Amino acid sequence: MPSQHEEPWASPSLGLSPLSRVRLDELLQELLDRVGVVVASRERLRALLDAVVGIGGDLELRSMLTRIVEAACALVGARYGALGVIGHDRTLVEFITHGISPQVHAQIGDLPHGRGVLGLLIQDPRPVRMPDITKHPQSYGFPPNHPPMHSFLGAPIRIRDQVFGNLYLAEKQDAAEFTDDDEEIVVALAAAAGVAIENARLYATAHRRERWMAATAEITNVLLGQVDRTAALRLVARRAREVAEAQLVLVMLADEEAGHLTVEVVDAGDTPAPDLAGTVVPLADTAFADAISGAGHVVIDDLGKAAAWPAPISTGSTLITPLAAAETLHGLLVVALPPGASSQPEDVPMLHTFADQAALALERARAQDEREQLVVLEDRERIARDLHDVVIQRLFATGLHLQTTAQLAARPDVAQRISGAIDDLDTTIRDIRTAIFELRTPVSAALRTEIRDLVAEAAGPLGFRPELRLSGPVDSAVPDHLRPDLLAVIREALSNAARHARATAVKVTVTAVDGRLTVTVADNGVGAVGAEPHGGLINLRERAAQYGGEFEVRPAEPAGTEIRWSVPI
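User: That's the sequence. What structure does it adopt?
Assistant: Structure tokens below.
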């Protein structure tokens, strides 16, 4: 029973003094606080595990980096966060932010390069924590429109022994600064993020290699059939652009003797691009020369700076690799990425393998062309041989019989007719010999065609078509360096006849006989007897003297002027 001095509802004292009860309350409160800390730590660990699972379940690198920044801000209560990716030159090449709106981000401007406090982790990749970032000696200050930040926590993200980038967190929301626990949990998250990023990069590399191998296999399948060079090169350019996610791809064919490259194929997809097809680029003092001389790949910052282009070009990192097969250099494959993009290390060997397959396509197309030319030449040689050994001999024999018959003919008109027939046979034999020369000329040679086209063009100014006679192996005997001069001589002589001769007939004769090339242009016009060569005729004389030849202007029979130009070959 309670005493008369105690309230009936009072708790029992359990034999403790008031001081002891106070101490017990403190112990109980401390126990409750520690339980709260344990519960909070458990919740943070659970949140950390959830974050690790969340970032590890995404293999798309850009999306994963965004998840890492968001998870870090949520774990430590940071208002702002960023993940800076470090490039080969130890500057920030990518900067993914959280907590800053797109509008504010646009107002701030370009991403940071990694100077000031952000550069501390780049220089010394260890966690950094400070109560006020603005008071640090290396602080550069913030650019205009940047939100104010004070408390700061940073931690490096490592992939094995390599630093991939850094986590930057600022403005802890429920305290003045970040704690030791915050630092530990961010370090743990950064370690897990490194593993996840490596997995994502390995997946991206495997997927990229798979696409390169598929493109290479497609080129290989093309090699199994009939190869059209232009179509094959267009396929090469298109597949290289798609796999490398490039802005522009060029296939440039090399002429090492002339010292230049010619753009054969241009592929820009749906992106507007300057028309560079057919552009001739000198090799001297360009990045292209380095790729050809070293027979290896070259990486440049911008394709627009590699040469003098007919239109401005702006690209990102550009890979240049040779198209070479069987020790034969065909040209270059140029893969230009969009502005701001950089090449991936795994692209270089795969692009080199792909270029080797493209070079095989060029080699196979050339081999097919050569086989086709051989077939044509063999057939033409057979026809030329039959014409020479059978047709000409029969015509010659017929001419001899007619000559004998003409001597026996009693009537003059019969003898005259027979002589006319003999002349026709001589002309026919001469024409057949010319056809034989043409048949035995390589398919690629077209000098006779160029001469015929040039004479045909003169029909306009003259008012009639000049007569043309070609004699001897003009195509095969005239060297390439002499062809422009030959055409220039014919053009100038016909131009003179059209301007001054007032002729009704012009005869052009080109002969390549006994080691000399001779051009004769004769007209039946008013003549130019006694006139000194001037203007274009002086140029013709100089062209002849250049090769140790002769030039002459003389009267034609029965009237007109004859220009004769002759050089040794």
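DSSP finds 14 helices and 16 strands in the chain.
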